[in-house]
Amino acid sequence: MSSCPPSTTVTKAVIPAAGLGTRFLPATKAMPKEMLPVVDQPAIQYVVEEAVGAGLSDLLVVTGRNKRPLEDHFDHAWELEEALVRKGDERRLRSVRESAALAAIHYVRQGAPAGLGHAVLCAEQHVGQEPFAVLLGDDLIDPRDPLLTRMIEIRERFGGSVVALMETDPASIHLYGCARVEPTGRDGVVRVTDLVEKPAPGQAPSSYAVIGRYLLDPAVFGVLRRTPPGRGGEIQLTDALRELAHSGDTPVHGVLFTGRRYDTGDRAEYLRTIVRLAYEHEELGPGFRQWLAEFMDTRRAVATGGPGVAA
What we know:
Domain Nucleotidyl transferase: 12-272
Number of helices: 11
Distance between the termini: 79 Å
GO biological process, one term: UDP-alpha-D-glucose metabolic process
Number of domains: 1
CATH superfamily: Spore Coat Polysaccharide Biosynthesis Protein SpsA, Chain A
Family: Belongs to the UDPGP type 2 family.
EC number: 2.7.7.9
Strand order of the largest sheet: 8-11-9-10-12
Number of strands: 13
Mean pLDDT: 89
Protein name: UTP--glucose-1-phosphate uridylyltransferase
């Protein structure tokens, strides 16, 4: 019996969510970091909505211990829904039902925290021989900048795998995977010729950092199975993509992203993200902007010792 040919249409997405969230302790002691609120919904819902908005309807969340609230959030909460029905609170009823109807969401556990490459490998049985997206929950991409849609277009044009790249301050590049690239003649698209995970200071091959969006050819699974632990003793997705880029059999391209990205994996950036998104929120924005302006005026007056202002 012959096997089915590999699919070229991207319909599946993998969202790794097994991390311990240690940077946000003690807030994440009993709550998954992916469930931390960003204005009025948990961070992971923004990621799911991004995948759905790009036409990906089959989502796999790679979880670990203490991640049950993730599953509960994307399920129906019948008692809560019934209570809202009795109150006639249609607006809140729609908001709690919305998360359960976004997409077909499946779950698999990553048995050990063995790195992003290992988390992706956990998705092999679900993904099969299809190209698929990987979306990291720490990176939120503004829906006005459809990065994932652009990456799907590049995959359809060139095949292979596609990574999202963002020009980064050289002083910070050591915090990311970093790509060596060459032009393709296509605006905003480069060919990746090498990748280094968190290069030592002064040794980065470029200023292009890999951010948390990937579109992967299923060939990556075979490479990941033989990829030894790398930096931090973990199986690095960057190392597997590096091998693919060197082989030439399945090319790796990069989309140069210059849009709005919000980093919720860092405490200070998480706070800035909330302020930015609250500032532009359709419902909350007007009142928040007024309060923020008044607050900053007050702080400036305190700092300059304005008349009648107590510190």
